[in-house]
Amino acid sequence: MIRASIIVHGGAGKYSEDLRIPREQGAKVAALEAWRILVNGGSAVDAVETAVAVLEDDPVFNAGRGAVLNADCQVELDASIMDGRTLRAGAVGAVKHLRNPVRLARRIMEQGRHVLLVGAGAERFAAAVGIPTCSSEELITERQLQRWWQERRADLEAMGTVGAAAFDQQGHVAAATSTGGMAQKHPGRVGDSALVGCGTYAEDGRGAVSCTGHGEPIIRVTLARATVDRLEAGLDPMRAAQEAIADLARKVKGEGGLILVDGQGRIGCAHNTPAMTAATVDAATGIPRLLP
């Protein structure tokens, strides 16, 4: 039997010490939920969707409820998911009334007519397919509201994103990513997390990647696809991740990180920010652990 693997991240950036332990715990919980799906024969797509939804539900992360606020003091969310077996993908951008945008991204992928829906149109599609919506106020936490009123300069702490990459027992890969984007961003801004090949990419036999960081530079180098290209060229997962992040910094002075699983189920990660929360599950013990 092929051995499955999972890796998740809670974003690259600079985080206050009081959030470190909750973020680490949240990442391990998400990894374990995904792992249980994989060891019971579930698909890589199911695993990454579940992991990201768990992270979206945790207000310590910049995704779903608790995401950062834009210049209008509103939450706007982006997400994407990709199935490496079929190369089908789904994505949403700038949605304001969804707790779990990754679930809508999957429904878009499965429906198959479109890849990316944004704003009110995406939310109309959610209503049509039975994805629960919520008021915009439900997504705002007191911590983010206080931060907005203090008018602090948006720094690396606002670069948090969540994501997952998985390899299942059938040898298929998938990846998913979700974010609230940049603090104080212009309303309607859509970042790399909603763009296939930039923040998310998956292809069987090659690998799956989820990225995090400052979205505009990530978009300019199509970071997720560029990383998978390195895997296809024969680099091991850690080196592929490290070289991709080094290129991000060298070519466009970008800051961020990524996680990946290759076509054999090996994992890798890298970042050039002060911190990145990432976790996996030990295949031998079934115990989640943090990655450096």
Label this structure with key terms.
292 residues; alpha+beta; Glutamine Phosphoribosylpyrophosphate, subunit 1, domain 1; eight-stranded mixed beta sheet; four-stranded antiparallel beta sheet; 12 strands; 25% strand
Structure characterization notes:
The protein has helices spanning 17-39, 44-56, 101-111, 119-129, 142-149, 215-220, 223-232, 237-252, and strands spanning 5-13, 77-83, 88-95, 116-118, 162-167, 173-179, 200-203, 207-213, 256-262, 267-271, 275-281, 288-290. By secondary structure, the chain is of the alpha+beta class. It has a single domain (5-290), classed as Glutamine Phosphoribosylpyrophosphate, subunit 1, domain 1 (4-Layer Sandwich). The strands form two sheets. The protein has an eight-stranded mixed beta sheet with strand order 4-3-2-6-5-1-11-12. A four-stranded antiparallel beta sheet has the order 7-8-9-10, covered by helices on one side. Helix 2 (44-56) runs antiparallel to helix 3 (101-111) and helix 7 packs across helix 8 (237-252). The chain is globular, with a radius of gyration of 17 Å. Mean pLDDT is 93; it is low at 153-157.
Report low-confidence residues grouped into runs of 5 or more.
153-157
CATH architecture descriptor: 4-Layer Sandwich
Q: What is the typical, i.e. mean, pLDDT?
A: 93
Question: Given the C-alpha coordinates, what overall shape results?
Answer: globular
What percentage of amino acids are in beta strands? 25-35%
Number of strands: 12
CATH superfamily: (Glycosyl)asparaginase
CATH-defined fold name: Glutamine Phosphoribosylpyrophosphate, subunit 1, domain 1
Which sheet architecture does the biggest sheet show? 8 strands, mixed
Cα end-to-end separation: 29 Å
